[in-house]
Amino acid sequence: MDVRWKGRVWEWRGPAPYHFVSVKAVDAERIRDVASAVTYGWGMIPVEARIGATTFTTSLWPKDGVYVLPLKDVVRRAERIDLGDEVDVRIHIDL
Fold first, then answer.
1. Could you give the CA distance from residue 75 to residue 85 in angstroms, rounded to a whole number?
2. pLDDT score for 15
3. Digit-coded pLDDT (tens) for 6-50
């Protein structure tokens, strides 16, 4: 399954800061339909993601009824992504 959306980068300030892009609600519904077949626990869904020229593996995290895509520091540096930037995200979920 392939999903593409644009979203703003936001930060969660916990014990260690993380940067995320939230999946659009309509796309989260599509992902939820296949979640039980692909999750490895706690609702986490492994994906291959692409932003700009950078491809990386990570997992979607369930949050507030949608999913969020964590952005690794190496990806943010490579693509010069800052907090609040709008990014074009592509993900692939292996079914």
1. 13
2. 74
3. 999 999 987 777 999 999 999 999 999 999 999 998 999 999 999
Instruction: Count how many Cα atoms sit within 13 Å of the Cα of residue 91 in the half-sphere of its side chain.
Output: 28
Q: Scanning the structure block, which residue is given the tokens 């979920």?
A: 93
What is d(CA 29, CA 11) in angstroms, rounded to the nearest whole number? 23
Amino acid at 94: D
User: From residue 56, how far is each of 20, 81, 93 by CA, in Å?
Assistant: 14, 15, 13
Tell me what pLDDT residue 74 has: 95
Measured on CA atoms in the order 45, 4, 72, 53, is the torsion positive or negative? positive
What letter represents residue 84's amino acid? G
Q: Residue 1, CB half-sphere, CA atoms under 13 Å: how many?
A: 17
Query: How many C-beta atoms lie closer than 10 Å to residue 6's C-beta?
Result: 10
